[in-house]
Amino acid sequence: MSLTIKDVAEKAGVSVTTVSRVLNDRGYISAKTRKKVMTTMKELNYTPNEMARSFLSNKTRFIALIVPTTENPFFGELTFHIEKELAQKGYNLFICNSLNDVENEKKYLRLLQEKRVDGVIVGSHNINISEYEHFENKIVSIERELTKGIPIVQSDNYAGGRLATQELIDKGCRSILCIRGDQHIKTPANDRSIAYQEVMEENNLNYFFEEVPFQLQDQEKREIVNQIFSGEVMYDGIVAGDDIIAKMCINSAVTHGVAVPEELKVIGFDGTKIVRQLSPELSTIIQPIEKLAQNSVEILLSILNDEKVNQVTKLPVKLLSSISTKK
Amino acid sequence: MSLTIKDVAEKAGVSVTTVSRVLNDRGYISAKTRKKVMTTMKELNYTPNEMARSFLSNKTRFIALIVPTTENPFFGELTFHIEKELAQKGYNLFICNSLNDVENEKKYLRLLQEKRVDGVIVGSHNINISEYEHFENKIVSIERELTKGIPIVQSDNYAGGRLATQELIDKGCRSILCIRGDQHIKTPANDRSIAYQEVMEENNLNYFFEEVPFQLQDQEKREIVNQIFSGEVMYDGIVAGDDIIAKMCINSAVTHGVAVPEELKVIGFDGTKIVRQLSPELSTIIQPIEKLAQNSVEILLSILNDEKVNQVTKLPVKLLSSISTKK
Questions:
Q1: Which of B57, B75, B92 delimits the end of a domain?
Q2: Counting C-beta atoms within 10 Å of the first and last residue's C-beta, which end of chain B has fewer, N or C?
């Protein structure tokens, strides 16, 4: 039979509320009373049950992270860094794979509603959800525009789009395709294709788009990519939506007899650790994943403390290119 | 001001304990009393605070998963499937990246001690920790031998080791190196190199080992791999510890002027989705990651319900080979 807060209260001759105040450092307690309670806890060898403490303090030190899926290397790496940051600050992390399903996302928000978590980091790709408005001082978003009151941490997608397009032009490409995601989803990633189009226009080149929504199955993505290379291929460069699409393009091109990089040059996006391990030759735009994690954790903990924060935090990206000049 | 269990009790004319019993479906309650409480809750439009409910029932429906890091694709994919399985059964998942640090692992076990989680799934690669003994009916392990009382879910590593080695021999290799992990860690993965050695001996071939511990930094792993290919290369086949090591071997071999697959054939281990997306040409042993997740969740929930379970669950692996016969 383990001791409870009630045993401490009885032994110390104070109310349960008083013990709770001491435990949670809340409300007025005289120095004398505090000392009495502390001494009694020590005498009884009482360790407060964490759940009881949370129940009383109304703080759990639990944070939830909503991502489409940790299977994706960008989100697997992001999850790792977010958990590491939170652990250093004494928080634990729930992981929620929304699988791009709105109902899943709503279910996880209920954890917040039921006060089982203190705050939420949203890195999911779903359509806008009105529920987010109720939690404006408890949520930070990564790369997703939710509501006006929810701060967002993002990569400089616009700069990334410009860097990728300019690199292909510099290396001799003239007919460049941009593969982008679902344009109905409000994400700063859309800035990449805006930047692409601008750079193409500045260079008096025609621009071309292909949409490959993130939430498609691999096989569906592969079919869209294969269509680009069946028949006569009209492109000599591709700005891909992410590294996986970039690799699909390269594999499909080679299968269809297109020489890479001689006839086709491809630049991906993300630059995760695993992609750089498995495909060190792939040119890509590197997202600052660790910094995205650090900034989102810092901002979330600030708003939970009622501190003012920037609405938008934009972090620089980097071009990693191994493309040589066109022959 | 939100309603509490006390308001319900007062309105229904019963004790707080009675309402708590109804909420948690525990202890004796007459049908009449139960109905009265339920009706009152409905009239008051009372929704029980989840934290209060947990506090009263002593169940959180939270599970923790300890992995080295979700950055690694095997663990990123495993985390995804475990969370999906648990969510379907009404549980939420904490993610704990132990980073192969014993202190980190101990810290996460404290969540269990403090009753903030109901159970733990351990997929970490650390040395044995005596603390695990205290939680024998609350833990399941994936691919790690903890204590005798903790059930383990694993791939058939022995079969995987045999399959990989035999495939290389069948395709003409005679001088095969086996790259394995740290042999001080008790993991069923060690069965792979045992199987490799057996197959080599059965075929009257010499066996060679190289150790590349999982917890090393990429750069350190790459240096060990590069040493294999600096100077005269004595191998025509490699059974690699995982797919990342396999790719490192291939990249290093090519850099050192060794023709792959003509002069060197490599087989990896894991076969994660991302590796198959990025390197579809890589031959590997596919681990049943989704099944590992399903089985570990099922076994954990069974032991939390005091049901009997198998101590060892071994799941079949599959060879994915695109190696053609040696010229």
A1: B57
A2: N
Cα separation of A168 and A164, whole Å? 7
Residue A200 is assigned to a structural domain of this protein: yes
Contacts of residue A49 in chain B, CB cutoff 8 Å?
114-115
Residues of A in contact with B70 (CB under 8 A): 70, 76-77, 79-80, 83
Please give the interface size between A and B, counted as residue pairs whose CB atoms are below 8 Å apart.
134
**A156 near B CB under 8 A:** no
Q: Look at residues A279, A178, A193 and name the one whose alpha carbon lies nearest to residue A237.
A: A178
Chain A environment of B93 (Cβ under 8 Å): 94-95
Average pLDDT for A38-52? 71
A109 Cα to chain B: minimum distance (Å): 12
Whole-structure pTM value: 0.83
Q: Which residues make Cβ contacts (< 8 Å) with residue B144, sequence separation at least 6?
A: B122, B123, B124, B125, B152, B186, B187
In angstroms, the CA B250 to CA B146 distance is: 34
Please indicate, yes or no, whether residues A52 and A172 belong to a single structural domain of this protein: no
Rg (CA), chain A: 26
Name the nearest CA neighbour of B92 among A166, A312, A108, A259: A108
Inter-chain touch A79–B60, beta carbons under 8 Å: no
Of the three residues A41, A57, A73, the one that is the final residue of a domain is A57
Q: Are the beta carbons of A93 and B94 separated by less than 8 Å?
A: yes
Rounded to whole angstroms, the Cα distance separating A108 from A322 reads 42
Per-residue confidence band for A1, with pLDDT thresholds at 50, 70 and 90: very low
- Domain range for B13 is 5-57
Cβ atoms of B185 and B211 closer than 8 Å: no
Instruction: Provide the CA B164 distance to its chain's centre, in angstroms.
Output: 22
Beta carbons of A323 and A265 less than 8 angstroms apart: yes
Q: A130-144, A298-312, B195-209: lowest mean pLDDT where?
A: A130-144
Helices (H), chain B: 5-12, 16-24, 31-44, 50-57, 73-88, 102-113, 157-170, 190-202, 218-229, 243-255, 273-278, 289-304
Beta bridge partners of A210: A179
- Do the Cβ atoms of A16 and A56 come closer than 8 Å? no
Give the residue ranges of DSSP H helices in B203-318: 218-229, 243-255, 273-278, 289-304
> Per the omega criterion (within 30 degrees of 0), is the bond before A280 cis?
no
What per-residue confidence (pLDDT) applies to A127? Answer: 59
Phi, psi (rounded to 5 degrees) for A156? -80, 80
Integer Cα distance of A54 and A99 in angstroms: 30
B114 lies within 8 A of chain A by CB: yes
Q: Based on the domain organization, do B132 and B276 belong to the same domain? A: no
pLDDT in tens, A129-151: 677 887 878 999 999 888 888 99
Residue B324 lies in a domain: no
Strands (E), B123-213: 139-142, 152-155, 176-180, 208-211
Question: How far is Cα of residue A52 from the mean position of the Cα atoms in its chain?
Answer: 32
B102/B307 Cα distance (integer angstroms): 30
What distance lies between CA B109 and its chain's CA centroid? Answer: 16
Of the listed ranges A116-130, A215-229, B249-263, B284-298, the least confidently predicted one is: A116-130
The total of structural domains in chain A comes to 2
Same domain, B114 and B172: no
A230 is a domain residue: yes
